[in-house]
Amino acid sequence: MTIVDAIAEPLPRAVIDLAALRRNVAHLAAIAAPAEVMLAVKADAYGHGLLPIAEAGLEAGATSLAVLEVPAGLVLRRAGVTAPLLAWLHGQDTDWRAAIENDIELGVSARWQLDAIAAAAADRPAVVHLKVDTGLSRNGATRADWPGLVDAALALQDRGVVRVRAAWSHLADASLEEDRRALAEFHEAVAEATDRGARFEILHLAASSAGMRMPEARFDLVRFGIAAYGFSPFDDATGAELGLEPVMRLEAPVTEVHVDGTTHVRIAIGYGDGVPTLGIAKVSVLLDGRRCPVVAVGVDSMLVDAGTARVRAGDSAILFGPGVDGEATAETWADWAETIADEMITGVAARVPRVYVG
Question: CA-CA distance, 47 to 53, in Å (whole number)?
Answer without folding.
Answer: 10
